[in-house]
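Morning. Coffee machine broken again, so started the prediction first thing and wrote up yesterday's gels while waiting. Chain of 215 residues, entered below exactly as on the submission form.
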Amino acid sequence: QLQKDLEEVKELLTKTTRKRLRDVLMTEKHKLELEIKNQPPPKPKDVAEEEKSSLGGYTVKINNYGWDQSDKFIKIYISLNGVQKLPAENVQVNFTERSFDLLVKNLNGKNYTMTFNNLLKPISVEGSSRKVKTDMVLVMCRKKREEKWECLTQVEKESKEKEKAAYDTSDPSEGLMNLLKKMYAEGDDEMKRTINKAWVESREKQSKGDIPMDI
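Came back before lunch.
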């Protein structure tokens, strides 16, 4: 761009006859020549491409995945269109004993990341790996002990236990009430009307003595 500006200034210099305008153009010419001289040399194409590969685009956090397990491995499946076309070094996974980070660089102009912290049980860093398949990355976490995992992370386990405790009570009617409250809170208007109607009818039956009060 600077080179084009300089050429245009030189062309104007050949055409102008007025001293004041010529002086202004000469000043601009020297300024442009100095800027061009101080510019860093162009990088080789492969270096430029490599930098673009590592920095280009914006980063997308991966939230969708599937998982499965065998006796020895936890397998996490991440769908990414065209990932098999990337150079191997663009798909990186770092493992620790209780976590892993996935980074996919410059896939269709975007970077993709996924982080799993607080895995349910320890994994072997050396035995874990990743495989790139057609439109998919498979993360293989090698279990330290060959046992079944009920979920992927400690947070998921605690969440399930809390939910179970809310409905698993010694009093069956209390468990039912908690379930109804959850359905009411999460339901749409139609669901709320149905629960309200059932509740009113139940109270009416209790008051008439049609059903025992403790049910």
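The beta strands are 59-61, 66-69, 73-79, 91-96, 99-107, 110-116, 123-133, 136-143. Going to sketch it on the whiteboard this afternoon.
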